[in-house]
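Section 5.1 Outputs to date
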Amino acid sequence: MKIGMNHGAGGAVMEKLIKDTILENISKTSVNGGVGLDALDDGATIPVGDYEIVVTTDGHTVNPLFFPGGDIGRIAAAGTINDVSMMGAKPLCITNAMIVAEGFDIDDMDRIMKSMDSTCKEADVAVVAGDTKVIESSKLDGIVIVTTGVGIAKKGEIIKDSTLEPGDKIIVTGSIGDHGMSLMSFREGFGFETDLKSDCAPMWGIVEKALKVGGVTAMKDPTRGGFANAINEMADKSGVGVILQNDAIPIKREVHAVSEMLGIDPFEVANEGKVVMGVKADKADEVLEAIKTDKYGKDAAIVGEVVEGEKVIIETGVGGQRILETPIADPVPRVC
């Protein structure tokens, strides 16, 4: 068996590779009883005294490097900041390793670095270390960026993706499918027909506002595999079911149009500036109101409820139901 593109695209195929090949060959996955690699959460935690250090790492191979709403520098910074944020930790810093093809345009690298810096500034995050390697152009398509993020939270305040409870409300912080659909339409050459842009952005501001209100039980950013993968993973790990209201889930008209043209389910494509959040029912309206005050949270909505059960089910406006399955993989390759 050989590695295929689906093995890196989120969803069931990637999960099987991680569990059967990667985790099976690592003997120690956590430190001091913290959240470890085997939890397959957005980050790991290292308890130190009264605090927990959160660490996450991410590789970025997005194609094209520059796209409507962002570029590889912005997505590298935002993606790592968001993974730290999903654990309920304040992001402090990132490291930046770049593998660059010989002949890569220095002006493009300058543009990428400026974008990374601007994104970090939004979340008050420093770039504290890095590495740069150059290899033959025949062995690499442009540039690959690998970032590691570090954050901090008080002990006992870490948020995991596996702690949904029946009765919790599900909040999505904005319209889904924007990133994947904007990239795909741009690649296919009909991006000029729509104003659709990537949602790539750091989410710490939204997360911080929600945590100040309280009642947040679980979080995940719906990147590869999209909303469908994120909510199924959260439900499966938590041992619960979820009932979603189809009409409540925010999806832009342009995303609907592109998805119909390409035959791609917008629930299954990556987002790079959204949060899927479980919140106690008595706090949900207040958390939603707080999120909506953030510039990236204006379209946030309560989209469903956690229930006893094993399935994620979508209810339509006319009373129909369908099961929202875990996608095999994100249908849009090299999306982040």
